[in-house]
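User: Here's a structure from my thesis project, written as structure tokens. My advisor, Dr. K., wants to see whether a designed sequence matches the one we expressed. Can you design one independently, without my sequence as a hint?
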């Protein structure tokens, strides 16, 4: 296996200089030989990398259908160890990473409550994570502070034992691996309709604070002809920084407050819940968002080949009766998270060619 500690770009730039870069400018510092080493921001991913990750996820998914394939996968990273450091509540992201590690034989450990660690004694998060890097080969982390994963990646890159860092949710700003599984779900949903290009995709709900929307909206700029719709009450509408990024990328979009008008026009609807965990004053809890709920009655107006997505958890924004419709993709999204995160782990550890060889033998 290649030496994973070689050619670490983050060791070649001072923190102050790095902090001054835009997310797009930071991207190359998270790569090695054009592939992800750290996975920290959506802006680091190129279209060829997305296509490769999606292909790899499909290969892993198909290999895992047989006992022999499962045994092959479990041997790939059996000498590696992963720390899952989640200081925010998580169900799907945590479990899909945990399952992806198990699928690849990557031994996982976890810290999900800092009161059970030395942080309760006053140890800084940075020192705790430096300790993790002594025992583990990769750090997968969720943290309430935006940009914290980038800070940790830079700190570890300037130690004698740097390890890759994967951002599993960072404040209100980024959730890059959720965006990867969303892209994979869209690709699979539209594989018989020419792919994601030229599609109309609507985001609905709390767009101001939804980090999943912020990350996916950027990745969609890599697909020509996509038009994005942002449907929300004014106080929860998408941020100007995202719109400015879409303008720079030449991405077509529309701002709306009328979900009923949008439903018949789009190929995908991406529903989101109110993110009131960020609402210190509890103002959004009293906001009437019933106009932004998708109901069983709306299925009749949704195009027959469209899809409904949701990063979950949900509240009332999708009626449970919608779940049985074949256009409801949010439970498939959940499982896709395991496959695409397994593909990302294999890429970080440079084992994707072994998947390719096995898959070729399997399908020849």
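Assistant: Designed independently from the structure alone:
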């Amino acid at each position: 296996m290649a030496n994973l500690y070689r050619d670490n770009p983050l060791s070649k730039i001072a923190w102050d200089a790095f902090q001054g870069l835009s997310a797009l400018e930071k991207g190359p510092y998270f790569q090695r030989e054009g592939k992800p080493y750290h996975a920290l921001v959506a802006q680091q991913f190129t279209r060829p990398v997305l296509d490769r990750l999606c292909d790899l996820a499909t290969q892993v998914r198909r290999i895992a259908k047989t006992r022999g394939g499962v045994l092959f996968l479990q041997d790939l990273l059996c000498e590696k160890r992963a720390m899952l450091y989640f200081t925010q509540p998580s169900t799907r992201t945590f479990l899909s990473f945990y399952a992806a590690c198990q699928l690849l034989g990557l031994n996982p450990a976890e810290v999900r409550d800092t009161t059970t660690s030395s942080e309760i004694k006053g140890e800084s998060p940075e020192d705790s994570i430096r300790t993790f890097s002594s025992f583990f080969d990769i750090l997968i982390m969720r943290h309430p502070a935006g940009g914290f994963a980038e800070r940790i990646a830079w700190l570890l890159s300037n130690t004698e034992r740097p390890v890759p860092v994967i951002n599993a949710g960072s404040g209100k700003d980024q959730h890059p691996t959720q965006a990867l599984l969303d892209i994979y779900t869209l690709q699979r949903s539209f594989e018989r309709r020419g792919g994601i290009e030229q599609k109309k995709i609507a985001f609905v709900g709390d767009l101001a604070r939804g980090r999943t929307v912020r990350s996916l909206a950027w990745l969609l700029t890599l697909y020509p002809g996509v038009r994005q719709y942002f449907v929300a009450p004014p106080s929860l509408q998408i941020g100007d920084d995202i719109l400015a990024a879409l303008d720079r990328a030449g991405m077509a979009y529309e701002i709306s407050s009328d979900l009923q008008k949008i439903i018949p026009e789009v190929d995908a609807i991406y529903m989101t819940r109110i993110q009131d965990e960020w609402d210190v004053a509890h103002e959004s809890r009293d906001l009437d968002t019933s106009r932004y709920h998708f109901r069983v009655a709306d299925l009749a107006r949704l195009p027959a080949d469209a899809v409904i997505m949701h990063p979950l958890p949900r509240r009332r924004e999708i009626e449970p009766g919608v779940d049985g419709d074949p256009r409801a993709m949010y439970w498939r999204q959940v499982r896709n998270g395991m496959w695409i995160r397994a593909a990302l782990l294999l890429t970080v550890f440079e084992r994707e060619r072994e998947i390719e060889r096995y898959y070729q033998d399997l399908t020849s």
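When you compare it with your expressed construct, this may help: The chain has a mean pLDDT of 91.
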